[in-house]
Amino acid sequence: MTIFFLRRLLTLAATLIGASLIIFLVLDALPGNAAQMLMGADASADAVRARTRIIAGCAAIASA
User: How do residues 3-58 score in pLDDT, each as one tens digit?
Assistant: First the structure.
């Protein structure tokens, strides 16, 4: 029974790592900027930069 749980635990870890890797690679391969896509093509560069910081969670660091 212990071997069963160890095998299931290893399968769980491998699945989580594999899914995380695939999702990261797909999102990294997509062109463009998430902020640019949200704001549209006519958004100013400053507005896109500010939205990028907000999305990345750096707004508190940038304003400090």
Answer: 999 999 999 999 999 999 999 998 888 777 888 888 888 889 899 888 888 888 86
What is the rounded CA–CA span in Å between residue 43 and residue 51? 10
**Could you tell me the residue ranges of all domains in the chain?**
1-30, 32-64
Cα–Cα distances (Å) from 6 to 17, 19, 20, 41, in that order, read 16, 20, 21, 51
How would you classify residue 40: left for phi > 0, otherwise alpha for psi between -120 and 50, otherwise beta?
A: left
Q: What is the pTM assigned to this prediction?
A: 0.53
Both structure tokens of 34: 């998430």
- Cβ proximity of 48 and 37 under 8 Å: no
